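Form 12-C: Joint structure prediction
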Amino acid sequence: MASGQVERGGPGIGHNAELSAATRRSLSVPPDILALNPERMRELGYWVVDQVVEHFTTVGDGPAQVEEDPASLRAALGGPLPQDGAPLDEGLALLRDVAVAAQQHGDHPRYFARVPGPLSFPAVLADWLVTGTQSVASSWGGGSGPSTVEVIACEWFRDALGLDPAAEGVLLSGGSMANLTGLIAARAVTGPGVVYLSDQAHSSLKRGLLAAGYPPELIRVLPADDQFRLQPAVTAAAIASDTAAGRRPAIIVATAGTTNTGAVDDLAALADLAAARGMWLHVDGAYGGPAALTARGRETIGPALARADSFVADPHKWLFQPYGVACLLVRHPGVLERAFAMNPEYLADVSGHEVTLSNRGLELTRRARAFKLWLTFSGYGFKNLARAVERGIGLAEYAQYRVEAEPGLQVVTPASLGIVTFAGAGREPAAHTAAAEAITRSGYAALSSTVLRQRAVLRLCTINPRTTEADIDGTIARAGALLRG
Ligand SMILES: *Cc1c(COP(=O)(O)O)cnc(C)c1O
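Section 2 - Result
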């Protein structure tokens, strides 16, 4: 303590001989104010482990999705401002029984809605380790270990997917943030200009472009073909007409696995087009990208994936991760730093083995998202991960085969990267939304309806390897019964 070194009444601010009463009161708070004793920490921690293991083993026995009314949720979880603490085990049980119970279970074997989130235990373990050790991957000095884990996880992922070996990665919270980050990096290279995407591109892309300040008149949403793919010829024509009008074509956004139907754009033709016009090719593989880990997925997506200037995949969808991790890979080293670094003198160090990951995006304090990926990759190995992804591809094909055999149902889009859509023959749109809702409300399975060229359809996304053929049978049979009227 420096106090007392300065004479009372001497010059300087705050140099008092005595601590004020307020300071002394503040310091009377014991340093262990928030601490729990180790025994209690273990007891509570083991309880959480037990809940999670129970969840892993029994999730399929309960409903796939539950929605509660807001009043009963608020009544159970709210109340007056908690001023004095309540027992932690009671709070934890309430979170489990009320909050966790009222949600979609994206890891349920019959959760087929939107994009499921099948989960693997190694990823959960590694994420717990990060949470409990405050692991951070922001600066090199503050997180050289976690930063290295992230760089290596991105490199392994890149190489397993068959992307350009020069590509540099960064992990973000999800596909939306990864798309936004990729588009901002692209603009740093291309400068302002026109962006081309299909009407099947994910909404996060348009939202990201608008949020990044793209004027709506520079965003070209082009009609997809009858297989829901961005059409290279239509894109080329739009580029030509923009060029003729004095505008600068800048970015083509392609999708490797659309959320609606699993369609994959013609990446080779679009890469040719981008190269010929000096444009940037961004590939959104948020849900479909991990399919490239398998031989069948690589065949569907094609080798031109390696020509993407930037590429996004969401391991919290098809790579068995807890929510909160997407990977952006950019083929041009240093571009992310050029777009985002706030201390350009750092650029000198970037190319070596030191990396400042907070300079590859908009987040400064970044939890070590890579631990879960790293442990998943190293623990299972890519061979086993590819087999788990491959099962999801096969399950959608099995669902297609079941739909074809089910009276009254017809396939609308065939199985592609784990997605199949179908409809009730001659049934009106409302019957489809009603069928999806009835099955979901029953708890047996969760599935969504969507609209394809004004046609209402049911849609199954089958990327959970724990799903059985019997799960598909039961779901299709229920849909058939409802749609036969
Ligand atoms: C899910 C999805 C996104 C958005 O990813 P989030 O992780 O939900 O933010 C973007 N693109 C595609 C193709 C998707 O399926």
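Section 3 - Comments
The pocket of pyridoxal-5'-phosphate is lined by residues 115, 174-176, 179, 202, 204, 255, 259, 284, 286-287, 314, 326 (CB under 6 Å). The CA atoms of residues 72 and 165 lie 53 Å apart.
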